[in-house]
Amino acid sequence: MEDYLVKALCYKGSIRAYALCATNTIAEAQQRHDTWSSSTAALGRTMVGSLLLGATLKGEDKLTVKVQGNGPAGAIIVDSNGSGDVKGYIKNPHVSLKLNDSGKIDVRGAVGDVGVFTVIKDLGLKETFSGQTPIVSGEIGEDFTYFMTVSEQIPSAIGLSVLVDTDDTVKAAGGFMIQVMPGADEKTIDFIEKRLLEVPMVSRLLEDGESPEQILERLLGEGEVDILEKMPVQFKCDCSKDKFGTAIIAVGLDEINAMIEEDHGAEAVCQFCGNKYQYSETDLIELREEAIKNTLKGREE
Ligand SMILES: [Zn+2]
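Above: the input record for the complex with zinc ion. Below: its predicted structure, written as tokens.
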């Protein structure tokens, strides 16, 4: 199944809902970062959650989710936008803990249960907006839910799910977000709450071939879901040799001279996607010229 996200309105607009299949996207992140089971699930869930939050933005707008817990996985950083693009990394990709008491991948053990959950939104304005809540669970899904309810003040139910195979590859990944708008009636909310308890994990449903649309019907009631939009989602990094070149110029002349004279070249590695960029001595001499021009310009101004 291709990766995509659906946006829906239900119960006369009083319930807003999103669901997605992101199996290929999370599989690509797993391969690019060579993550082990607990790290795969932690990074994958954060990426799925970020895609859901990103879906509430307009196309060009973007956000960053940072999960900084006290566990061995270290920080998780994910960027997403309103067009379904996502990229992300986890500080320690090689965490693989024993299954937890429920027989599931131990995400809390990897992330930790004390720390900070931060969302920074860049809506193309002068300033960015950021919201922060404490990590309440470390299982990621509950942390997204807590953030939405407390920081964004939108009562929400969020499910994030990554099914990891025994060889660490991703079998299925996806999730949903249900938001209660003002004016939703109690009966509807009770009904959805009951459904939430009964529905199997999203990744299992996806593995069985169910679509995001079908998953929303399971959660919200058959015939109740009015799909507004379907949007592809994908792993996408916007790094390039030029961008890292600009970063090299910014480190200053001394550093660039050292790269030329001592190392006779340089390599930049993108944290988000793992792509590597090589700079030959000739490349570096060009960058040094740029750096010198910038310094002179700085003096003139
Ligand atoms: Zn990159």
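Notes for the reader.
The pocket of zinc ion is lined by residues 237, 239, 270, 272-273, 275 (CB under 6 Å).
The chain has ten helices and 13 strands.
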